[in-house]
Amino acid sequence: xxxxxxxxxxxxxxxxxxxxxxxxxxxxxxxxAWGLSIISLVILIxxxxxxxxxxxxxxxxxxxxxxxxxxxxxxxxxxxxxxxSEEMMKLYKETGTNPLSxxxxxxxxxxxxxxxxxxxxxxxSNDTIGVIDKPLLESAQKAHIFGAPLAAKFMDSEEKVAxxxxxxxxxxxVTAIMIVLMSFSQFYTQRQxxxxxxxxxxxxPFMQQQKxxxxxxxxxFAVFGIxxxxxxxxxWLTTNVWTMGQQMFVIRRNPTPGSKAQAAFLERLQKQLxxxxxxxxxxxxxxxxxxxxxxxxxxxxxxxxxxxxxxxGLVAQADGSVAPSDSAVATETEDGTPAAGGGAPKRQxxxxxxxxxxxxxxxxGKAESDDAETxxxxxxxxxxxxxxxxxxxxxxxxxxxxxxxxxxRQAKSGQRxxxxxxxxxxxx
Length: 428
Hints:
428 residues; elongated
């Protein structure tokens, strides 16, 4: 255990420094002074872990974006596990994705969590640990949070709780409430991630895993929470609340493309741009650059956003800014980019006619059609008159001899003119 002594010294020293600070406001033996010291320790650790949290967010998004490709690799090499692993590692390397990045914040704060656990256990066992000497140990043992000592656990016996000058009922009520709050905060954080910040157009096994973790983690916290001291429950509840607030901020400011959070974000951004005609903030500028660069690969929410700007007389630029378009209505071209010159020309819609105008136009068109038909009949009759021979025979008599008479009889009887095909002997 000697190798962990530097870590115990660091955690206990930070707690003692915050305790000395809060002792100027609260009683040094009160639960407020010691409880706020633990909360301040959590805040300090989480501030230091912000860069790792940013990496976790990027890794989670990259994993979501790679799910279709990963699924294709699994189906293609489902009979060759070694080749499947090689292709997966190659995909991670090409995209710069690390699957373990999502676990970095938890792994990074785990040593501080276990160090705090041992420090509080030492207080419960009346053992000095780290920089906590005998006077500080006695002060920490007197500290109670809503009647529960910092070092008490839900599963402690009545004799052990009595030694810390508390009642078993108070300890179990306080620890039960904190365990419920801790589990609920974990569940809400995971549910917020699944319902608001996930691309709903892609159904992958990763989403099923996230749904399973949404229910597994709260149960794990509830099971392990009954063996945590009150001080550790304060630590873990604080870090869960911090994670929930931090995630809400990230979802609101930088949501996952294709998610409901992105739709709400782009709607707010469109209202702002319509009102101010200017992009404010580096984050919004980067979002505009990414949307313009996508071209035809934009999702439904991004296309709606671009068309909404166009209707407002604005067009998105490649540098992340917006500029006035040439017309009041500008739409995307076929390749998904704004039309040249700031916007596409406004399409002229045909003017709607009244019912009387439509009837008048129809009657005029019919009259023109009748006149054209009459002129056509007259022209045809004139052409037939000009084509008749001068020595035409009177009506009913052929111009020639028998052949003419025969042709006339054939025409009258409906038979075809010209040489007739001889009948088959069997049909005579």
